[in-house]
């Protein structure tokens, strides 16, 4: 064991465990930043989401789970849940602000939580149905959600000859 490992606190935060998620957030923002309003409307097929809708959907899901289900900073997050119904108009900076705000709150929480917190249960009622999720389920769902829809977004960029991030 190295000296650094000996002095490191035993309770690792979830930021250390989920470090790659923050990098993926950076890749999403880097891919979106140079896009024009017209490019945000690009899609693969007429019946699939466009880039604007995908970015908004990612932010909305984060906001719904952390702000709604987990009740973490709902005053900051819950306004973004409407983006699941209708993506905001305007320049790419609006979408980036949503992704960065939702990510900042997630990252703050990951920095406070330890492995033991993964077992925390969040219960409530949604659409007249009771629910109960442990923190680990929510985090895993959001990671796979970000990866899935971010992958769609990157596929649209590449299919239209636009730069995609180097993973």
From TrEMBL:
Listed binding positions for a divalent metal cation are 57, 145, 149
Keyword presence, Zinc: no
UniProt GO MF annotations? metal ion binding
Which InterPro entries does this UniProt record tie to the protein? DinB (IPR007837), DinB/YfiT-like (IPR034660)
Keyword annotations for this protein, in alphabetical order, are:
Metal-binding
Q: Which domain of life is it from?
A: Bacteria
- Pfam families assigned: DinB (PF05163)
Family assignment?
A: Belongs to the DinB family.
This chain belongs to which protein, by name? DinB-like domain-containing protein
Native source species: Thermogemmatispora aurantia
């Amino acid at each position: 064991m190295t000296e650094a490992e000996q002095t490191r606190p035993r309770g690792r935060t979830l930021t250390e465990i989920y470090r790659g998620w923050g990098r993926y957030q950076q890749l999403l923002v880097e891919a979106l930043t140079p896009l024009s309003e017209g490019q945000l409307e690009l899609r693969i097929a007429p019946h699939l989401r466009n880039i604007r809708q995908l970015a908004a959907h990612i932010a909305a899901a984060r906001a719904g789970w952390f702000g709604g289900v987990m009740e973490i900073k709902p005053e900051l997050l819950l306004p973004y849940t409407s983006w699941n119904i209708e993506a905001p108009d305007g320049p790419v900076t609006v979408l980036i602000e949503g992704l960065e705000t939702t990510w900042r709150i997630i990252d703050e929480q990951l920095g406070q939580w330890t492995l033991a917190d993964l077992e925390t249960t969040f219960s409530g009622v949604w659409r007249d149905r009771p629910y109960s999720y442990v923190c680990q389920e929510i985090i895993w769902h959001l990671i796979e959600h970000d990866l899935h829809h971010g992958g769609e977004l990157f596929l649209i960029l590449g299919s239209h000859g636009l730069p995609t991030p180097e993973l």
